Amino acid sequence: MKDFTSHLPGSLLGAITKEIRKDSLPHLTPVPENSISMKTTLIHFWQNRYRRDTAVAVSIVVITYLLASYLDFAERFADWAEPLEHSQIDELPFVFLNAALVAIWFSVRRMRELSTEVAIRKQAQINAHESLYRFQKLFEEGLSGNFIADKDGAVIICNAAFRLMSGMAVRNESAFNIAEALGARWQQIISHTAESHPLDFPELVLERPDKGTWVVMARFRILTYPTGEIREVHGYFADITEQYLAEKELSQLFAENRALAGHALQAQEEERSRLAREIHDDLGQYLTAIRLDVATITKISSRGEASIYLDRIVRHAEYIQIAIRRIIKQLRPAALDSHGLVEALQQLIHDWQKQNPQIGCIYNLDQSCNRLPEAISIVLYRIVQEALTNISKHAHASKVEIELVKKRQNLMLKIKDDGIGFLPSTAVPNSFGLTGMRERIESLHGSFALASSPSAGVTITASIPINYARKSEYVENIIG
Ligand SMILES: Nc1ncnc2c1ncn2[C@@H]1O[C@H](COP(=O)(O)OP(=O)(O)OP(=O)(O)O)[C@@H](O)[C@H]1O
Ligand SMILES: [Mg+2]
């Protein structure tokens, strides 16, 4: 196909080409500051498209006029058309002129239509972009985790909240499979193909690739092809993991509390019947013996014989006194009231060592802990007592270390054994000692920790703020 420029004379072609080059160059060629203003004006003139088009059109008209005058086009045409006068061939230029004017008029009209159409399209495009941007922002910045997955659960697109809750952001992953996270539930979800109804789950437990649990409130919507085949699955997740874990912990705590309360009542009953038994067996028989001896004495006249009974009465009275002391000690360590916590603990450890001579016990009890608020003293005493009982019952230890120190406004208690240890995560049914320890410490706003693993012994640490107990004691005193 020939180029239209092939019809133009060489000099004109050169001029136009030069002008076109100039048109493309001004942006690239820097104009020196001291250059002639004429050149600058020309460049500015040429940069304006409207002026440039007008100049080109005027040039073409002038060149055509010059060429036509030079080559005598009209005369030549008249000469050629003269013999054909009968067929009105000489009217052709006017016909062509009219046709050209009509064509220009149509073109201008079409151009106007086109520019209106282009403007409408541009506006529609802007509107479409704006609405796309809005929906993108809504999708991306929503607090719920939104995603679109294919029928196999592979996530095609998801927002920042989803990336965060699924752990993709932390693991720096770009792929996620929701079907794997949901397990058997996925089949249940995709079998629900009614597009008009979303599928809601108030609580859905998922598993992350790192095996972490993730709990969400979820809504799914399945989109299908007209054939009924699944096109994609839309999901909206609200992360309720923390709420779920807190509820679980709370219900576990309630269950523990219920069990502990039940255990406390049972222990109270057992303690009462043990005391009743001890009073009956120990005290009862000596009192009966005393009563019988006194009755016998009243019937005896000889002093020598009576002294035998009197001696027995004194011995029985002593037994009764010892038994009463023992019972009182079990009910409440007397040393706690008379000598303070440190001495009460020393006595407790001493008694325990007598019963467990095979276990070595090292202890460090800070003397400044001797006079503590009543509430703290009894809690610390009971914790050491239960820990030592556990060591003799379960630990098979050879060494125990006990430390009680005061650090600033906190009391720190540590009991460590080198026994067989255990897995703290495995709950032992009907065991209340450790739970009771924790409850007692937490009731004083302290913290309790137990570290253990099989064959690594057990370390119990407790920290109690002194001031809290002091304050509550003060308040109790005022109210009381
Ligand atoms: N020092 C220890 N060494 C090894 N295992 C221990 C130790 N302390 C506790 N355990 C384990 O923890 C379990 C729970 O202890 P916990 O004191 O709560 O209950 P318990 O001693 O079994 O019963 P109780 O309710 O009478 O105290 C024990 O059954 C034992 O298996
Ligand atoms: Mg115990």
Explain this structure.
It contains 16 helices and ten strands. The chain is an alpha+beta fold and 480 residues long. It folds into four domains: 107 residues, no CATH class; 98 residues, PAS domain (Beta-Lactamase, 2-Layer Sandwich); 89 residues; 144 residues, Histidine kinase-like ATPase, C-terminal domain (Heat Shock Protein 90), CATH 3.30.565. The strands form two sheets. A five-stranded antiparallel beta sheet has the order 2-1-5-4-3. A hairpin with a 5-residue loop joins strand 1 and strand 2. The longest helix has 59 residues. Magnesium ion binds next to helix 14.
Number of domains: 4
Biggest pleated-sheet summary: 5 strands, antiparallel
Helix content: 55-70%
User: What is the count of helical runs?
Assistant: 16
**What is the CA-atom radius of gyration, in angstroms?**
52 Å
Structural class of the helices, strands and pairings? alpha+beta
Q: What is the CATH architecture assignment of the largest domain? A: 2-Layer Sandwich
Secondary structure: number of strands: 10
List the helices and strands and how they pair.
Layout (H helix, E strand, L loop, with lengths): L9 H15 L12 H11 L1 H23 L1 H9 L10 H50 L3 E5 L5 E4 L1 H6 L2 H4 L6 H5 L2 H6 L8 E9 L5 E12 L5 E10 L1 H59 L3 H29 L2 H5 L2 H15 L4 E6 L8 H22 L3 E9 L2 E8 L15 H11 L3 E6 L5 E8 H14 L1
Parallel strand pairs: 6-7
Antiparallel strand pairs: 1-2, 1-5, 3-4, 4-5, 7-8, 8-10, 9-10
Helix pairs in contact: 10-11, 13-14, 14-15
Bound molecules: adenosine-5'-triphosphate and magnesium ion.
